[in-house]
């Protein structure tokens, strides 16, 4: 039976570190889980016996529903807002700075910050159910913190389309065509098999070569510590607006 307690767990087996997060509300991410996820990625990245990392979430439905609405509506100041959205910045930067290649296991829908996570891994493998949506504008915010990660994968034009049309889902095939996903499989078993095959192959590859490749892949992002902090401040200010509070309240009422 699935736990109802949010968590971040990791295990290491034969050079492969699996980092898993969970939240009972469709794997949405409150600040504490974001910070724990960032610190766990940093911790396993520092281990010499880890050759490759798999990022995954628990459950069978959504991969990640993005920011926790319960926490968003509790924010009462610009500083609290910046602190909350900085959690996404910490996770993205932890993946960016990791010396290990990170495989993303995207088993279901990704919304908002979830699209940011999927865009921040080095190689995302998904199922046909893993559609994507940047929903932030619909609640009066915007994908400011995750934006650089998404734009890096899909380009400015596609990022702007996702950001503007904030209520429509894009299919997993769309995400593959535009560079968020590297592979899309018809079911979870096929996805997991593909992930294991790749992870085992990478675990036997040269750590030095993979680290050098990682550096090349993320070239041009050296300013992201400052950039994402600035973006977190924008979201932290906007989340206090009456528009956002009303939009979130309406969304939560519909989902009951």
Strand order in space, largest sheet: 1-2-3-4-6-8
Q: What is the fold-level CATH name, i.e. the topology?
A: 2-enoyl-CoA Hydratase, Chain A, domain 1
Supply the number of helical segments: 11
Q: Quick one: biggest sheet?
A: 6 strands, mixed
Number of separate domains: 1
> Mean pLDDT, nearest integer?
96
Q: In terms of per-residue confidence, which ranges show pLDDT below 50 for 5 or more consecutive residues?
A: none
**Which CATH-level-2 architecture?**
Alpha-Beta Complex
Helix content: 40-55%
What share of residues are in beta strands?
5-15%
Order of helices and strands: EEHEHHEEHEEHHHEHHHH
Indicate the structural class: alpha/beta
| The CATH top-level class label | Alpha Beta
Counting DSSP E segments of at least 2 residues, the number of strands comes to 8
For the terminal residues, how far apart are their CA atoms? 23 Å
- Rounded radius of gyration (Å): 17 Å
Q: What is the general shape?
A: globular
Descriptive account of the structure:
- The chain is 50% helix and 15% strand.
- It has 256 residues and is an alpha/beta fold.
- The longest helix has 20 residues, at 78-97.
- The chain starts with 6 loop residues before the first strand and ends with a helix.
- The mean pLDDT is 96.
- Helix 1 (31-45) packs parallel to helix 3 (78-97).
- It has a single domain (7-188), classed as Alpha-Beta Complex (2-enoyl-CoA Hydratase, Chain A, domain 1), CATH 3.90.226.10.
- A six-stranded mixed sheet has the order 1-2-3-4-6-8, with helices on both faces. Strands 5-7 form a two-stranded parallel ribbon.
- The chain has helices spanning 31-45, 69-74, 78-97, 113-120, 147-154, 156-164, 172-177, 188-203, 207-217, 224-238, 242-255, and strands at 7-13, 16-22, 52-57, 101-106, 110-111, 123-127, 132-133, 183-185.
- It has eleven helices and eight strands.
